[in-house]
Amino acid sequence: MDDAILQWVCSLATAFRQSAHLLLDQQYKLLLDTWSLGEIQEAFSLILEIEQHTNFHVLHPNHRQHSAIPHLQFIYDRLQKIFGLRLWAKVGQSLPQNETISLRCFRNLQALELLHIPVTSLKALQTLRPTLRSVIIVKGLTRLSDLFIRCGADKAGEFAWEQLQEAVLAHNSLYSLDHSLSLLPNLKILDLSHCELEDASALEYLPTVSLLDLSHNQLRLLPRLSPTATYSLIVLIANNNLFSHISGLHEMNNIEELDLRDNVLSLKEALSPIGALPHIRVLKISGNPITWDLNYRSQIIRQLNPATANHKVVFDDVPLTGQEYDEVGMHAVPAGSSYSPELLSSLSSLSSLCSPVNPISPAHGLISQPLYSPEEADLIQLDPVDSQPASLVNDSAPVSLKNSGNGQPRRKSKKKRTRHIAITDPDNEDMDNDSIHLAD
């Protein structure tokens, strides 16, 4: 084994020992770049027969006295037990064509995050289907089936992801979805923002979801959901699209938070389906042509379901006043009503005359809190941790749900707290002065 790599492995093992309690903490993710993971696996392949044996196994007796063996044993043991992994590509070290990344070392992952790494380059992903609860993929996916059916380079078949509850697939060039969503029976959070979607009709295959983010796409029609999903949906984020009407929204009558900002909603009649939403607590429609009318706020409040007067409502970031509560429901359309064919035709024709206001501005506020903005997604490789082959990050989910008191999950945000283990690159001329530290 190369002496520089051997020294690097020893340094990594030392860092792992110093942070052993964090490596086994479900609140933390291990951060690795593809170069570091490749070097670790190459070290394993030189000494360990991991391809043929599920347990740790030494190849030849002459290797038993190798000074790297105890360190590799410890690293291998910890990698099998960690709960979360964030894998990213270093600047200038993108994967060569047809090269794969094996996840065979990780047996117990519950959270996997990939940054600028093609899903099709992953091997052993299918072995994680029984344990993964959260998947985050930024700029590495072009077809959902590559992830949920083929499992990357495994070329697997259709099997359910029973434990998966969160899929954040923002900033991918998907354009459309597919039936692989039917393999996610317990998914609660689905983020498809910034995916250039023009067709989301395949969402009808999704069995159930509580939070759905479709923001910053090119959608003209609100997708229909399965009957179970329409019942379970609590938060719908659909800002920065091309919606001229919201036909079908009346079926999603358990929605509590709705973001329709920066679309092409032009007539107050276009928002009549909100009258079928008795639990609405947060409503955002700013940036639509309808808001050019100075009285739009009063007009929309009168279309709310009368039941919303019984709880606190925030409309375009401003809570309803006492006088506005008196107006709630005055012009509400009966629940279950849909557009007449004539009105639907009129609303659709108007969409060609309007364009979204600031269609690419990032969403802010209570509802939409993207994992990465477009700029951050492009520059993610320039993050300071790029100089650190391995580190730990306390990384809670970007969106989580809690109980609201009425039995329904509510959404809250969590702040991110990070801790890093910095390990000097073996190519560094100052290798003798390796600095390994744990820093808040």
UniProtKB/TrEMBL annotation:
Gene Ontology molecular function: kinase activity
Coiled-coil boundaries: none
GO CC annotation: cytoplasm
Keyword terms, alphabetized: Cytoplasm, Kinase, Leucine-rich repeat, Repeat, Transferase
Major localization class: cytoplasm
Residue spans of biased composition, Basic residues class: 409-420
Pfam families per the UniProt record, alphabetical: LIP1, LRR_6
Region listing for Disordered, in residue ranges: 388-440
Domain LKB1 serine/threonine kinase interacting protein 1 N-terminal: 9-87
Location(s) in or outside the cell: Cytoplasm
Domain of life: Eukaryota
Keyword Ligase part of the UniProt annotation: no
PANTHER family: NISCHARIN RELATED, SERINE_THREONINE-PROTEIN KINASE 11-INTERACTING PROTEIN
This protein's name: Serine/threonine-protein kinase 11-interacting protein-like 9
Species, as recorded: Homarus americanus (American lobster)
